[in-house]
Amino acid sequence: MFLYNNKYMRYIRSQGYLVTYNYLVLIFNRRWIDELQEHLNKTENSSLITDGIFGISTMLILGQAIDKNKNYLSEFVSTMMEDKTDTPTDRIELLRQPLMNFLAEVEGTTIHINGKTESQFTTPYGVYSLYFPKSKPVIYVNSLFKKYSLNKKNKSDIRRINDFLTNDEKMKIQDLCWEFYKENFMSKGIITLLNDMTSISYLSISINGGKGRGIKAIQSAIGATVDGKVGKQTLTLLSKNIESNGYKQLNFNMLEYMILFYANLIKKKRKFFVYRNGWYNRLYKTACELFKKKYKRIPL
């Protein structure tokens, strides 16, 4: 994708930060490419196929357009930013149903407590009240315990509260969990580049492994600096990696990183051994979804 040996790509680079920035914005919003192709067909009287692929033909026509107007690319990107500033947001919103369906399977849709590994309740879709006591899903579930005069520290009451919940209350919990995950665990730059199942893999790792863990898994998979921060290097290498190796290899490398991460965590602190079933089964479930295999929980 990043064919910098192409004379037009060198020309884009020579124009300085602004044009290079706009080029990167275009690449990171791939769904804009088919619209760029349509725009080029209109303005340059070309006959590009609007396939959303930034290939040699598109590069050549774009280069010719830039020869005539050095601001051609920046003007196009500016138009797209004005007209479709919500494109990354839309991309994230499209993930809601597949992500919540995935979490419903691995975390459940009831308020629950795992007596062996947890000391406090977990909401439907996996928000653990001990780790996120001030999160909106946990605060709302706490209010439901009060509403139904139940003790949130009593295991029996934690199980019983599910019998009292109305459909509206269940739906509100799902809405709050989605907003919580969206605000705290999703990088728009990363999500824009990933397909649905790879996005869910990234988010599942982030949710279960801690903030930034999904980004670190991606960085490890693509050979970027593993710091949990999304910057130009990470986005550039991710785009190149997907273009060269596809999503399957990226997913495999991410899962491999997490297996080693959990293994090292357990090795260093034996108190984490009790969590191994949940950790590895979540990864196994993710792998089954990614590689279209039937999931069956495995005892460890």
Order of helices and strands: HHHHHHHHHHHHHHH
In the CATH scheme, the class of the largest domain would be: Mainly Alpha
Level-2 CATH architecture of the largest domain: Up-down Bundle
Number of strands: 0
Distance between the termini: 42 Å
Count of domains: 2
| Stretches with pLDDT under 50, minimum 5 residues | 1-25, 82-87
CATH topology description of the largest domain: Chitosanase, subunit A, domain 1
Global outline = elongated
User: What structural class should be given to the helix and strand makeup?
Assistant: mainly alpha
Radius of gyration (Å): 23 Å
Number of helical elements: 15
Note the main sheet: none
Helix content: 55-70%
**Average pLDDT, to the nearest integer?**
81
Strand content is under 5%
The quaternary organization reads as single chain
Brief summary:
With 300 residues, the chain is mainly alpha-helical. The chain is built from 15 helices and no strands.
What's the topology here?
Layout: H1 7-14, H2 17-28, H3 33-43, H4 56-68, H5 72-83, H6 87-93, H7 96-107, H8 136-147, H9 155-164, H10 167-185, H11 188-193, H12 196-209, H13 213-222, H14 232-268, H15 276-290
Helix pairs in contact: 1-4, 2-5, 7-12, 8-10, 12-13, 12-14, 12-15, 13-14, 14-15
